[in-house]
Records
---
Amino acid sequence: MMKSRLLVQIREELRARLLRLSKAAMEAHAAATDVGSKAESKYDTRNLEASYLATGQARMVEELAESVRLFEAFELRAYAPTDAIEMGALVQTKISGHPAWFLLAPCAGGLEINCEGCEVTILSPASPLFQQLHGKRVGEKIDQPNLLIVGLS
C-alpha cells in the first residue's frame, strides 16, 4: 500500500535530516566555543556570528526532533472516496490539469517524497492549502490554485 510505504520513507528522511543537522549544530557549537575564535578586535564578530549560528541550528534540531517524534506516532488510516479530507489523508489532485499528491500531516510541511513514482508533498496545518483541503471531498474544486480533488486514500 502506498501510504504505509510513504510513512516509512517520511520517517527515514526526517531521521536522516535530524542526524545531518545535529552534526552541523555540534560543529557550529564547537566553533562558537573554540578558543581560537576569540575576537581579535572590537570589530571582529566571528565568535558572535558562530554563536548565533549555533543557537539557530540548535533550535532547528529541536524542531526537527519533534517532527521525528510526531511521525513515529503518526498513523495513516484508510479513507473512503466519500470521506471528508482530514489529517492523515493522502489526496490526489489535478492542479490546472496536472496531477499532484498531498499528504495532510501534523508537521514537516513542504517536505517532498517520491513514493511509487508519485511526488507527494506534505502539507502541515500552517499551510493555506492544508486549510483549503481540510473538510473537502472528492470532486470538489478550489479556485486558488485551480485544483480539483480527484482521489483520497
---
Amino acid sequence: MAKAASQSSTGVDRRLALQGREATGEGVKIAPLPPAERVSLRAPAESVASLSRALGVTLPQKPKTSASKGGRMALWLGPDEWLVIDESGRDPLADCAKAKQLHSAVGISHRNVAIAVEGPAAAACINAGCPQDLSLVAFPVGACSRTVFGKAEIVLYRTAEDAFRIECWRSFSDYIFTYLSEAARDAAA
C-alpha cells in the first residue's frame, strides 16, 4: 500500500501522516517510510517457537535485539513483547492466528508511522532528542529499543551503521518529524 492515501473500511480516503515531507541537513536525511503492517505481540516463553514458525522469523529473546527475514522484522521490546513489522505485503496478524500456543496479537498498522533517519550524522540527529547511547558498540546494527524522543515514546531500530527506523504513534509523528528536522538543521550550522 504505497499510495498517497489509504481507504478505510468506511470508504473514506485517509491522508497518510507526513505525506510528502522530507528534511535534510549536512550528513542526514529524514523521510517518512511507506505504510507497513504491524502487530504488537505478547507471548510467554513456551509460545515463542510456535509463533516464530507461524511468522517465518525467529522471535528474538535478548534485550535490544531484532530478527528479519523476507521483509518481516521482529523487534524485542520486553521479555514477552515484540513489535512485528511487515513490509512485504503479508499479514502478520493472520500469521499469528496460525500459532496454537497462548499469545496476544493486536494489529497496530494504522496507529504507527515510521520515519527513516539516514546518513553519517543520523545518530547525532537522533541524539538531539533521545538520551540513548547510539555508538555502534552500545547500539549495533540490528539493535532496537523502546525509548523516548523529546516527550514522545518511540521504538528505535538501527537498520545500518548510518541508518535508523523510528516507529512512533501517528499522533506524535508531526512533532517527532519537526524535531528531527530542526536537529538536522542545527547539525548543519
